[in-house]
Write a structure and sequence with these properties.
The structure holds two protein chains of two kinds.
Chain A (H helix, E strand, L loop, with lengths): L11 H20 L3 E2 L5 E2 L19 E2 L4 H9 L5 E8 L11 E10 L3 H16 L5 E4 H7 L10 H10 L12 H13 L6 E8 L15 E9 L2 E8 L4 H17 L9 H10 L3 E7 H9 L16
Parallel strand pairs in A: 1-4, 6-7
Antiparallel strand pairs in A: 2-3, 4-5, 5-10, 7-8, 8-9, 9-10
Helix pairs in contact in A: 2-8, 5-6, 7-8
Chain B lengths: L2 E3 L8 E4 L2 E11 L7 E8 L5 E7 L3 E3 L3 E11 L4 E4 L6 E4 L1 H4 L11 E7 L2 E6 L3 E9 L12 E6 L4 E5 L7 E5 L4 E5 L3
Classes of the chains: A alpha+beta, B mainly beta.
């Protein structure tokens, strides 16, 4: 019956708690003197990430942000300084226990920070919600090797497919996966379930650099990290790429891949590239899924326990 | 041929995988933040009951299984097949013992069962949630006998054995929950 699902999916006590949690996040950043910023949710340029689909506003053709990253970097280039944002982000089609197409993202940037320092800060924030437990740091390569898989920087498609189908918890691998698709499959199906309760994965393959700079010592990997808590991905951070030429090449190759796959092709964000050309300070930044963090803090096994009106009730 | 996209996946949906019919038990959307999205599903083989895990690329299409769940009346067992009848068409469908499985011990003639048809053939049979069956054999309960926790086994007319309270006698008609295999009450007339 239409309307029967009018009440929130999360209980009222939990929603009151959510308000306290948001206050705690703001207090965390106030104590560290980061500036809270707001940037537009709708933008003329979109993101070109091959695996992220944006929602589009029909009347203006503007894209709903998938993260506030580009706009925040323009603020950094303009000289704002360390800043954070709590905002809504949107990703089409991402719906499940740990996904809601509209979600609350916390994103922050630290000037002059090395990823190690930013990981310390992420761990401190998370400890406030999930308790202070040791956080393991593991390179992407080692996470694969520890799971008995081939070296993800070296192995070809055939070897990865073989490793996947020969693995003890083997499942047929979906057909037609690219090499990176195979890595994603192995990572999500084999590696993540075996990770320690709280674990940073670092040094992602260069092909998964997104907006991270490549590692100075080993350009096969990117200065990117992710935090996993109980197998749930909570945060994604970069030592930010500051070279607009390199970023333009990544955007363009994304567009080529999207065109080949028949996906919508958002315009490249020229304002971001211009801001970077004017000088993006050396910085590290991270995006953290607040709904997921809150759900874990509450001991819920889905986001619906901490969101008032998830997608189906919105 | 009918097919489903992964974004239509939900529990109960019937799929063909490797030429076998399956039903989705659980569907989970899995996506590394910046990577390829997958649907991870637990599916139950409708023939064997075996549950397996599978993953699909999100957006992929999967063939639908030609499976129909329908209510049918159980008629009789000819020693080899269990015979069911579709109430509207009076069409009869013989079901092999594998399809009936555990449900067989609850089946009494005339009872309405839920029968899953695959390509028109019975694939599995669910007994009604509650059945009323007569006790054909049980030991006389001794007053004050609590040695077996206040219950004793009773054999019912279909051959099923259930634990019943000590006061139940042979010849009585009982209501039994087929989902748990437990005695519910004496049947009311």
């Amino acid at each position: 019956m239409a309307g029967a699902d009018w009440p929130p999916s999360a209980d009222i006590g939990r929603l009151r708690q959510r308000a306290d949690w948001l206050k705690a996040v703001r207090r965390f950043f106030a104590e560290r003197e980061l500036i809270e910023v707001e940037t537009p949710v709708l933008s003329q340029a979109g993101v070109t990430d091959v695996h992220i689909e944006s929602l589009r506003e029909r009347d203006t053709g503007r894209w709903l942000q998938t993260s506030p990253e580009y706009a925040m970097k323009r603020l950094l280039a303009a000289g704002l300084g360390d800043c954070y944002q709590i905002t809504r982000a949107f990703r089409a089609g991402e719906q499940g226990r740990w996904h809601n197409p509209e979600f609350t993202l916390l994103e922050w940037y630290r000037l002059g920070f090395h990823p190690d320092q930013l990981m310390d800060e992420v761990a401190a924030l998370v400890a406030g919600f999930l308790g202070a437990t040791g956080v393991v740091r593991k390179r992407y390569v080692d996470a694969f090797l520890d799971a008995g898989l081939p070296d993800p920087l070296v192995a070809g498609e055939a070897e990865l497919t073989r490793a996947a189908s020969g693995h003890p918890n083997a499942m047929p691998v979906p057909t037609g996966l690219s090499r990176h698709g195979l890595l994603d499959w192995l990572f999500s199906q084999v590696v993540v379930p075996g990770l320690p309760a709280r674990c940073f994965i670092t040094h992602y393959p260069a092909g998964q650099a997104v907006l991270a700079r490549l590692d100075d010592a080993d350009p096969r990997v990117a200065a990117r990290f992710e935090l996993f808590c109980n197998g749930v991905e909570i945060a994604n951070g970069f030592h930010e790429l500051t070279d607009p030429g390199a970023l333009r090449r990544r955007f363009e190759s994304d567009q080529v891949a999207r065109r080949r796959a028949g996906q919508a092709i958002p315009d490249i964000d020229e304002r971001l590239l211009a801001a970077m050309a004017s000088g993006l300070p050396d910085c590290a930044g991270v995006a953290l899924g607040l709904d997921r963090l809150f759900a874990l803090a509450a001991g819920e096994d889905s986001l619906a326990g901490v969101i008032a009106f998830p997608w189906d009730r919105a | 041929m009918a097919s489903y996209s992964t974004n239509q996946f939900k529990s109960g949906l019937k799929l063909m995988l490797d030429g076998e019919p399956y039903t989705i038990v659980e569907n989970e959307f899995v996506k590394p933040g910046k990577g390829q999205a997958f649907n991870r599903v637990k599916v139950r083989n409708l023939k064997t009951g075996k549950v397996i895990d599978r993953t699909f690329k999100s957006g992929e299409s999967v063939e639908a299984a030609d499976v129909l769940e329908t209510e049918m009346q159980y008629l009789y067992n000819d020693g080899e097949f269990y015979h069911f009848m579709a109430p509207e068409t009076f069409e009869q469908h013989p079901a092999p013992p594998e399809a009936v499985g555990d449900a067989g011990k609850w089946l009494k003639e005339q009872d309405i069962c839920s029968v899953t048809l695959y390509n028109g053939e019975p694939l599995s049979v669910e007994p009604p949630p509650h059945v009323t069956l007569q006790v054909t054999q049980t030991d006389p309960g001794l007053k004050g006998d609590t040695s077996s926790g206040g219950s004793k086994p009773a054999t019912l007319e279909t051959g099923a054995v259930v634990q019943v309270p000590l006061f139940i006698q042979e010849g009585e008609v009982l209501k039994v929950d087929t989902r748990t295999g437990e005695y519910v009450s004496r049947a009311k007339d």
